[in-house]
Design a protein that fits this description.
Layout (H helix, E strand, L loop, with lengths): L1 E3 L5 E3 L6 H5 L14 H24 L5 H31 L3 H13 L15
Antiparallel strand pairs: 1-2
Length: 128
């Protein structure tokens, strides 16, 4: 099924509409609910912000000199964010299940949080 819009442009319904949507699909897996865990909430927020920032910058610079390099950089950062999402989701599952490994995993997440230690919401009292 197609839809006709302004200028008789056609697209198949359900397909991504923008270059950003096509190049940077919705990130997975879903990030866990922080459920009052300020460390987890902080890291999840920073991952979301990073994903959005690199997609926006890639879209801005893609047609300029070195634009292709910027897009490759953004795709690499998005892959790193996907890896972080997997760790955060695993921690959320372990925490919600009351598994003892969640305590140790939280320490690893505190180490990851140091990447954003210049951010005003970062706290040095999170376990390291």
């Amino acid at each position: 099924m197609t839809s006709r819009g302004i200028g008789d442009a056609q697209r198949v319904l359900g397909q991504p509409r923008s270059w950003v949507e096509q190049t940077f699909p919705k990130p997975t897996p879903a990030l866990p609910d922080a459920a009052g865990d300020t460390l987890l909430g902080f890291v999840c927020s920073q991952v979301r912000q990073w994903e959005t920032q690199v997609a926006t910058e890639a879209a801005e610079y893609r047609n300029q000199v070195l634009g292709a390099a910027m897009v490759r950089y953004a795709l690499d950062i998005r892959r790193q964010c996907a890896a972080l999402r997997r760790i955060l989701a695993r921690y959320g599952d372990a925490r919600d299940a009351g598994e003892p490994e969640a305590v140790r995993m939280r320490e690893f997440i505190a180490d990851v949080a140091t990447a954003w230690s210049a951010h005003p919401d970062w706290r040095d009292d999170w376990p390291t």
